[in-house]
Amino acid sequence: MPQHDQKNSAFIVIDIQNDFCPGGALAVAGGDSIVAGINQEIEHFDHVILTQDWHPAGHSSFASTHEGREPYEMVTMSYGKQTLWPDHCVQGTHGAEFHKDLQWTKAELVIRKGYRKAIDSYSAFFENDHMTPTGLGGYLRERGIKHVTLAGLATDFCVAYSALDAAAQGFKVTVLPDLSRAIDIGGSLQTMMSQMRNAGVAFR
């Protein structure tokens, strides 16, 4: 059970969507195995926020939009390095929907990200240019939230980027590794875990 002050804490559930679960277009191994635990965690928080990848068709982060490129290759965009992905979480598709077992109706806010065609968005707080805000930081501050707990998919991308941005925004941050799963491309999990530790993120 989490140790926190209900009034100033929020649980941010990252991208528990069909395309990131087994059988999905960008499946994370064991992605569906964390749903039950996340549901239990949701029960202990008064404030629950969800993120949802929400790409338009032909998004610039899709390998299919770059002739001759394959998924998981790295390219340089105007905003920096970008991993190319299989087409996933396209707006209005089954793959973009939350996993059917996720008990998400308690959520007071759903942050949709990656909906700008020319830029990807891993973090719940900023687009990948690290400059364009989603508005989540302001939402949390206006409600007096000081501590955020994060879990979901994937540990080394959207969870980690969100945790790092939350810490940089001045929030106390806890990540639940047991309720997150990683893609782990070229050692990305170890790299991002180290970055989170160095930023003062706690793990429970």
TrEMBL record:
Is this entry keyworded Metal-binding? yes
Q: What class of enzyme is it?
A: hydrolase
Keyword set includes 4Fe-4S? no
Mention one GO biological process in which this protein takes part, according to its record. Answer: pyridine nucleotide biosynthetic process
UniProt keyword list: Hydrolase, Metal-binding, Pyridine nucleotide biosynthesis
Q: Which pathway does the database say it acts in?
A: Cofactor biosynthesis; nicotinate biosynthesis; nicotinate from nicotinamide: step 1/1
Coiled coil region boundaries: none
Which Gene3D superfamilies does this chain map to?
Isochorismatase-like
Which Pfam families did the record assign?
A: Isochorismatase
A Gene Ontology molecular function term for this protein is:
metal ion binding
Q: Which InterPro entries match?
A: Isochorismatase-like_dom, Isochorismatase-like_sf, Isochorismatase_Nicotinamidase
Q: EC number(s) of the enzyme? A: 3.5.1.19
**Domain of life assignment:** Bacteria
Q: Which parts of the sequence belong to the Isochorismatase-like domain?
A: 9-200
Query: What family does this chain come from, according to its entry?
Result: Belongs to the isochorismatase family.
**UniProt protein name:** Nicotinamidase
Q: Which organism is it from?
A: Pseudochrobactrum saccharolyticum
